[in-house]
């Protein structure tokens, strides 16, 4: 799951991003609202962690505009503004949760998990493709009763492919979903991740499910087997 941290304090932004990454999230950082806009043009995010007092504008107004144009994923406001009026304003602006600094990373990660389980585009907690099942909350995959041992990145890749089973997922879409902007990505990184996942699916008796569409991307076959 990919998170955008919008926070103008560089040290705090990195602490939040590093903490969430250790808990299984992929994170990008935007220190300004214009950087957040640019990031969202180049990647699809599962959620935003949003500060309010940014150098180039107010997070509440930015969120209101994003909600009106339906361009914002679920958002948690993370701010030092703890007054009742501030909280009400933030939630009315379209925030899905409101957290006052300081906050423990474990709590923030738990709030993100709860947010991503709410009804909406990601309401399907368990995805099934034939005998293959993926639990988006626990990040575990099973074939029957046997669990497949997946790394965080392999789990993210499998979820993406399962959500689009039967259709081709372009290589660029996979790269944007698996790697944040600060990570060095080697030319064959996506191919290597797909190869590892394919091998684990084959070991679990799901050989022939994951197909390479040469020059385009990859497809997980949804053939009911």
The CATH architecture category of the largest domain equals 3-Layer(aba) Sandwich
Strand order of the largest sheet: 2-1-3-6-7
Please give the CATH class of the largest domain.
Alpha Beta
Overall tally of structural domains? 2
Strand content: 15-25%
Mean pLDDT: 88
CATH-defined fold name of the largest domain: Rossmann fold
Helix content: 25-40%
| Beginning-to-end CA distance, first to last residue | 27 Å
The Cα radius of gyration reads 19 Å
**General form:** elongated
Largest sheet entry: 5 strands, parallel
- Class per helix and strand makeup: alpha/beta
Question: What low-confidence regions span 5 or more consecutive residues with pLDDT below 50?
Answer: none
Instruction: Please count the helical segments.
Output: 8
CATH superfamily grouping of the largest domain: Response regulator
According to DSSP, the number of beta strands is: 14
SSE string, helices as H and strands as E: EHEHEEEHEHEHEEEEHEHHEE
